[in-house]
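Quick note —
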Amino acid sequence: MPSARIAIVGAGLAGLYATYLLERQGIHDYLLFEARPRPGGRILCAPAPAIASAPDCAGRHDLGPAWFWPDVQPELDRVIRELGLTRYAQQEAGAVMVERSPDEAPVRMRGYAGQPASMRLAGGMEALTGALLRQLDAARVLTGLSVRGLDAGGPRVRIDSVAAGGAGAAHDAEQVLLAVPPRLAESRIAFTPALPPALARQWRATATWMAPHAKYVAVYDSPFWLEQGLSGEARSARGPLGEIHDASVPGGAAALFGFFGVPAAARASVGQDRLLALCRAQMQRLFGPQAAAPRQEFIKDWAQDACTATGADRSAPAAGHAIAPAAEADSGPWAGRMRGIASEWAPTYPGYLAGAIEAAALGVRALGPVEKRRTA
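Predicted structure written out below.
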């Protein structure tokens, strides 16, 4: 049975950063599991088409989280600088379009700059996960393996996983860093022995950030809204998009993106083709006829992503960032052997990108000899 000192379950930002920290500490005896065929987790970008002025543009549009706030998230900003990534401010200059109700025409309102300033990464947030991934041992990053069981009944934790084709695999490790959201872990992983009941309830009750949400991205030949004195920002009580922003890439393609304001069940019942048509119609209402014909358009519905959302996420209304649950058991067979490090476990920024950095750093810092921690 293949083994490692440390197993990291989930290769999103938290899992990648935790593994990066292990590498920096000279700890190379790890295995990083990811159910998806790609690392990155809830960080996902759509490709931007090349434009004549920048045919080699590497700009990409975020379908997951896109922003960070250096003024209040210095640790994430430090990591981004350490990796040599380029950041830029969210475009906010210009007027905002507002649809107050289904019965009123959109109105133009004075825009304003958000505080603290929202920043984005050149190349999209995949630039961050990609930079971390390049620091790791590729042979120890196991994509396409969904962890279905963790067993702490022996001297080491047994990790049972299933590949996309149905083939099973077993590994073992001294300690496990759980870099998947608490609710998803509690729902999809069989823990043997069972988690302490109070801990399981906490994890089950913790909403997964992004899970109820969906994003629409429309790519255009030029940012024509800027010529109209518009910022690209809009608010709508009519929908289907409740909030829209400029998603253009400096030196690359122009784009707008929006968060859907309708529940996951309604989105699923309408179907993607109809949703795309409704989004184009809304863009035209808000930004004029040029907005009705994007060069490319994308929808990413995280509620339909089995590696992100559970039934509880799909049926619940979208909510803000939850209070972090306990990250580990304080007694019993799981104490000192497994710790949650996904963003939802972050004490300060649960659910945010900064939370993934925070929780991963805390998890790696807490690692220690298993027997020493279990008897402390």
